[in-house]
Write a structure and sequence with these properties.
With 244 residues, the chain is mainly alpha-helical. The chain folds into 2 domains: 3-65, Orthogonal Bundle (Arc Repressor Mutant, subunit A); 70-215, GntR ligand-binding domain-like (Four Helix Bundle (Hemerythrin (Met), subunit A), Up-down Bundle). The protein has helices at 3-17, 28-35, 39-52, 70-94, 97-114, 119-140, 143-160, 167-186, 189-215; strands spanning 25-26, 55-58, 62-65. A 3-stranded antiparallel β-sheet has the order 1-3-2. It starts with a helix and ends in a 29-residue tail after the last helix.
Length: 244
């Protein structure tokens, strides 16, 4: 794997996981030292983060991690609603029923999974949601729609961290996913669109509230304990000039 690709993946993950928080300055020299690589792959990775919308230009200081505001979450959900409602509508017409029947069964078991302590149970739940997204993408069979959904999901990953330790919301979300999967499996496009609309309405309200509290400097809501910051990553390797 090229050095620039490794650096991009690491920086992207750090932004999505909150290791690099909104407003953090991204400087080539600092990041090349932190990751143990030359400035060339860092520069190329920065350009890709800029294209993803995960970084913004900062006059005279390189880049900064893009802000996450209540307004930006509202805007994200305006786009997400249009895309996902169309996606489940098409999926209900083109799906493999067995795939979504199995996913519905998995989401029905998810509340028990979420009762297990530790990060492993949460990782398994989020892996299930990623599997659902992948099945939806395949059923849609429209690369342009899938590309647009992928871009939205990149930004949603940052927002979802705010509910990672909110088991009550995750249990409700599992039930909502179950209903969407059941509707798609049954080929009921009207129910699928309605179910995904309910899910998006509830998740939007939860995330907008959480981000607004952060903007106001208020502590997280009682049902959502603060997310512990991830430990600093290990360097990618010894500092050296690596071809891009």
């Amino acid at each position: 794997m090229r050095a620039s690709e490794r650096v991009y993946r690491r920086l992207r993950r750090d932004v999505l996981d909150g290791v690099l928080a909104p407003g953090d300055v991204l400087a080539e020299v600092e990041q090349s030292k932190r990751l143990g690589v030359s400035r060339t792959p860092v520069r190329e990775a920065f350009a890709r983060l800029l294209g993803d919308g995960l970084a913004s230009p900062l006059a005279g200081r390189g880049l900064v991690v893009s802000a996450l505001s209540a307004r930006s979450v509202e805007q994200l959900y305006e786009v997400r609603s249009a895309l996902e409602e169309q996606a489940v509508r098409l999926a209900a017409l083109r799906r493999d029923p067995a795939v979504f029947t199995r996913l519905a069964e998995e989401f029905a078991r998810a509340p028990r999974l979420l009762e297990e302590p530790g990060e492993d149970a949460l990782d398994r739940y989020y892996a299930l949601t990623e599997e659902f997204d992948a099945a939806l993408d395949e059923a849609v069979d429209n690369p342009h729609l899938v590309q647009a959904l992928t871009a939205v999901r990149t930004h949603l990953a940052r927002v979802r961290r705010l509910a990672r330790h909110d088991p009550a919301r995750l249990r409700r979300a599992a039930a909502e996913h179950q209903l969407v999967a059941e509707a798609v499996a049954a080929g009921d496009a009207v129910l699928a669109v309605h179910a995904v609309g309910v899910h998006l309405h509830r998740s939007r309200a939860r995330f907008v509230e959480a981000v607004a509290r952060q903007e106001a400097g208020a502590p997280p809501a009682p049902h959502a304990p603060p997310v512990e910051p991830a430990p600093p990553p290990e360097p990618l390797g010894r500092p050296q000039e690596v071809p891009a």
